[in-house]
């Protein structure tokens, strides 16, 4: 059997197409298409409209086809495609680290260059183009992948157990705090969810002139509030930039 170490390239370069794992490339492409379907609704409406199918954009009347499309995306794409793409991102880094180790090169110099560029692109994307950027997070977590790439299976299992435990704790704590905030909003000096501090529909219309953090506070943190939705729409449509960045 040929020693793979002797075949390790002294200078890393893109691998030939014949060496690529076709199944991984296909899975990555399908995951990207699914992510596009998930994110498309965030491009054209407020956060509430994007997250809740019962929130109808002003001037539109949804059909059964709309709800069917929503259900399809939620069932087949949401979380599934994002998780698959994230998994393949980590797999790609691990494969590249393996090539670096066999070539006798430092994985950290590679990571600083590649992940640094990815982080820079992500920051520009998230602050100037779209708030849903994920590249910045990938770049940060990529450092963890680099650190874990040479760990033993036992060490990785222990790390996974700790991470899962922390995530479960945060999920439960977030749910409990969300329930407390919606049930006892007076504890946090917030109006009840779904309501604002104004009393009448007429005065509600007057409060849609609020912008930025003032609108968020008036809406009690409820993204479905007309005050929140009006301010969010105005921020992305008319600015100023800081308001758009806040939302």
Descriptive account of the structure:
The chain has 247 residues and is an all-alpha fold. The chain has helices at 22-44, 47-51, 64-76, 80-102, 107-128, 135-148, 153-183, 201-206, 212-218, 226-238, 241-246. Helix content is 66%, strand content 0%. It starts with 21 loop residues before the first helix and ends with a helix.
Give a concise summary:
By secondary structure, this protein is mainly α. Helices cover 66% and strands 0% of the residues.
Keyword list:
247 residues; mainly alpha; 11 helices; 0% strand; disordered N terminus
List the uncertain runs: 1-8, 196-206
> How large a portion of the residues is in β-strands, by DSSP E?
under 5%
Distance between the termini: 59 Å
Morphology call: globular
Largest sheet: none
Mean pLDDT: 81
Rounded radius of gyration (Å): 23 Å
The percent of residues in helical segments reads 55-70%
Question: Helical stretch count?
Answer: 11
What letter string, H or E per element, gives the SSE order? HHHHHHHHHHH
Question: Count of DSSP E strands?
Answer: 0
Structural class: mainly alpha
